[in-house]
Amino acid sequence: MGPRFTHLIEGLPASVPFVGPETQERARSRPFAARLGANENVFGPSPRAIAAMQEAASGAWMYGDPENHDLRQALAAHHGILPENIVVGEGIDGLLGYLVRMLVAPGDAVVTSEGAYPTFNFHVAGFGGVLHKVPFRGDHEDPDALIARAAEVGAKLIYLANPDNPMGSWQDAETIQRMIEAVPEGALLVLDEAYVELAPQGTAPPLRVDDPRVIRMRTFSKGYGLAGARVGYAMAEAGLIRAFDKIRNHFGMSRISQAGALAALADQDWLRHVQAEVAGARTRIASIAAENGLTALPSATNFVAIDCGADGDLARRVLAELVARDIFVRMPFVSPQDRCIRVSAGRPDDLDAFARALPEALAAARK
Ligand SMILES: Cc1ncc(COP(=O)(O)O)c(C=O)c1O
């Protein structure tokens, strides 16, 4: 009796890998005072995007345009490429799932970094791929090691986020371009550029969408402040982009999300405003860390990793004590990155609350 799961699904853990702040709030029976754990953009979307979404709401009885035509046209103009080189989907997370589904059969090798963005790994496990992980070098992902391991194991996919989550570190465009040039035959580099709008100029190599060795993933969740609208896009060679049509959810985008993303893209002044706010928040987080004798790592994202000065056990206790004081933060999963907690760029009020809680949390954690 009952459903007959595939062997693959039966073999996967039943645990939920992503515990959201809402789940924690329900468990605590109390809301957080500052939501600084999910690298959301607390400065919000462009007011023009909000207006566009409000206007689109009355048309929500209609499915969204399955081709995402207008958004792809606008993105193509924005990046100086063709719409045939762009696929829009349900955030980078959704697009990563489609990409893995297209390329990874059970037993296929995939390479990523130990402690890198875990959603990619979740999809690889879900399609039966075999993950090979290389360590970070210092607090950076290591392009040379990723390429070397990919060549060794015959990987079909190589994942790198630039800038990186959870450390906020980044590689310059020349390093990434050298990595693209070194992608072994038969492999594809997934370059996750979720935070690129918040990174210094010179972080992203030029877009060469006829290059079959790389697919670039971008999102409206971070710089554009639309994480809850779930709009991401990938840019790559037209044949690879067309292949998404075989399996993607053609009605995955709502009209509201499409309208919001289109208006957000058109409001580059708002993006510049957000960039300035995020830069200010990064500086403030670094000062709060310094006031407490801790070191903030340089960041090219809307979050800052703060080195708690010892091992993962101490950082986990600091995190628990912050959560107990109503500050939602997260931290890296593996050593040695887990000596840090990770704090999203917040508004002044959010960071005031963090600044008040941190000294007490540290004292309690060190007891
Ligand atoms: C490196 C990285 N990639 C992708 C995402 C998710 O992006 P999206 O909201 O577009 O699914 C995140 C979100 O935290 C991220 O840190």
Report on this structure.
This protein is 41% helix and 14% strand. It is an alpha/beta fold. The chain has 2 domains: 19-44 and 269-366, Aspartate Aminotransferase, domain 1 (Alpha-Beta Complex), CATH 3.90.1150; 47-266, Type I PLP-dependent aspartate aminotransferase-like (Major domain) (Aspartate Aminotransferase, domain 2, 3-Layer(aba) Sandwich), CATH 3.40.640. The strands form 3 sheets. It has a 7-stranded mixed beta sheet with strand order 2-8-7-6-5-3-4, sandwiched between helices. It is globular. The termini are far apart. The relative contact order is 0.16. The mean pLDDT is 97. The structure holds pyridoxal-5'-phosphate. Pyridoxal-5'-phosphate binds at residues 39, 91-93, 117, 161, 165, 192, 194, 219, 221, 227, 232. The site of pyridoxal-5'-phosphate has 13 residues, from helix 5. Residues 36-358 form the Aminotransferase class I/classII large domain. Pfam families: Aminotran_1_2. GO terms for molecular function: transaminase activity. This is Pyridoxal phosphate-dependent aminotransferase. InterPro entries: Aminotrans_II_pyridoxalP_BS, Aminotransferase_I/II_large, PyrdxlP-dep_Trfase, PyrdxlP-dep_Trfase_major, PyrdxlP-dep_Trfase_small.
